[in-house]
Design a protein that fits this description.
Elements: H1 16-33, E1 47-51, H2 58-70, H3 83-89, E2 96-99, H4 108-119, E3 129-133, H5 141-152, E4 158-164, H6 174-177, E5 181-184, H7 190-201, H8 205-214, H9 219-227, H10 229-244, H11 250-268, H12 271-284, H13 294-299, H14 302-343, H15 355-364, H16 367-385, H17 390-405
Parallel strand pairs: 1-4, 1-5, 2-3, 3-4
Helix pairs in contact: 1-2, 2-3, 4-5, 7-8, 8-9, 10-11, 10-14, 11-14, 11-17, 12-14, 14-15, 14-16, 16-17
Length: 408
């Protein structure tokens, strides 16, 4: 006989509030589907907003709710064992759709053609149609407006789940926020993340502990830190920048090298996939074919190829932006460690392996200067998000850091 779970499948035992929210929603959803009075009247809604820091597990939480809604076990919603749960958690359930942006934003076309269109289809094999919108902070204002009616008046058997970093108006539409139930997804504990890295990635305990701390409990980033040498190298590269700030032009050369390495990594990681995508499009348009009409068809295909090139360029820019932003988060971490040391706070460091550098910064830069360093990094991150050229934004960062080091 199977042991009953203490939390819905996909939710850890150390996340009791999240587990309770999902379990009650699933139980009430079953009552509604059966025409009964919900046992938890306020627990179920059609529109949700899951927030949490990057890597906290927002996507896993959304899938856990979807699995609990589609679960076929009569007694335990979200059992994790039935066909419905396995299909949802394995990404194979036909009634659970995940919409993820390829470009820098989610535009009106995606909002209407993917999110709204999927939301208005009836479930085929499950009880509910679930549409999960990844990175909903990328919704443009026009796209959010286009979704408003669907969020306000969703179909009876549809559930919309938006995922965003926070409820801040810069992260998610205020108008949509007021029409969604908000659920905060906390990051995993350091202990749980260490166990994940040891059991699933084969990391040593020391490496797992370092990756869990340095990633700020970001599961995906921690996995990369224990298995991807380029990620480890780039982290060391950006942290060493803090030591080079007052060393002539060394800091400018280092930050320019960082931008180049980010660009190369973003290009190399997806070059084959981009090439296959283009080849597939060209083949579908008849390139390489023979016979009457082929040449004419190819002349008319230039627009489609240009559109693909534009989409690939936008994806490339987004990858570069995301990689550089992660590096800037690392840089902020070393200044945070230095500020904690200078203030005498008994707080675990973000970068324990760079403790000597943090101590050096704490001795040589004032508390006001370290705060200014954190502000400088935040400004650079904002500029990159606003499409300032990377080289200009990062050179300006070095200039601001130099001024901050001199603050008294």
């Amino acid at each position: 006989m199977a042991t009953k779970r203490t939390a819905p499948a996909g939710i850890a035992a150390d996340q009791p509030a999240l587990a309770r929210t999902i379990a009650r929603a699933a139980e009430s959803a079953r009552d509604l589907a059966a025409g009964r009075r919900p046992r938890h009247p306020a627990a179920m809604t059609h529109s949700w907003l899951f927030t949490g820091a990057p890597g906290s597990g927002r996507s896993h939480a959304a899938l856990a709710l979807a699995a609990a809604l589609e679960c076929e076990d009569p007694d335990e919603p979200g059992c994790g064992r039935c066909r419905g749960c396995r299909a949802v958690l394995g990404g194979a359930h036909t009634d659970v759709v995940r919409v993820a942006p390829d470009g820098l934003s989610i535009g009106v076309d995606v909002a209407r053609d993917e999110i709204t269109a999927h939301a208005h289809r009836l479930p085929t094999v499950g009880r509910w149609r679930v549409v999960i919108v990844e990175e909903a902070d990328r919704l443009s204002a026009a796209a959010a407006d286009a979704l408003l009616k669907t969020v306000e008046e969703p179909p009876e058997r549809t559930v919309l789940i938006f995922l965003a970093p926070s409820t801040d108006p810069e992260d998610f539409s205020t108008t949509l926020r007021s029409r969604c139930r908000h659920v905060y997804v906390p990051p995993p504990s350091l202990e749980r993340l260490e166990r994940i890295l040891i059991e699933e990635e084969g990391a040593s305990q020391a490496d797992a502990r370092l990756a869990a701390a340095a990633s700020l409990r970001h599961v995906g980033r921690a996995r990369l830190l224990v298995r991807d040498r380029s990620m480890q190298t780039r982290r060391a590269q950006v942290l060493n920048l803090a030591e080079l700030v007052n060393h002539g032009d060394a800091a400018f050369r280092a930050v320019n090298q960082l931008v180049r390495s980010v660009d190369k990594e973003a290009t190399d990681a997806h070059a084959e996939a981009d090439a296959r995508e283009r080849a597939k499009l060209e083949e579908s348009l008849g390139r390489g074919g023979k016979g009457r009409g082929v040449a004419k068809a190819l002349r008319g295909s230039a627009g489609a190829i240009r559109e693909l090139e534009k989409a690939q360029k936008m994806r490339h820019t987004r990858r570069k932006r995301d990689l550089l932003d992660l590096s800037l988060v690392d840089l902020a971490g070393i200044y945070r460690d230095a500020l904690m040391k200078r203030s005498g706070a008994d707080v675990a460091p973000t970068h324990p392996d760079f403790a000597p550098l943090a101590e050096e910064l704490a001795e040589n830069v004032s508390a006001a200067g370290l705060v200014a360093c954190l502000d400088a990094v935040a400004t650079c991150r904002r500029h990159i998000a606003e499409n300032v050229q990377f080289a200009i934004a990062t050179d300006a960062l070095v200039g601001r850091l130099r001024l901050a080091y001199q603050a008294r």
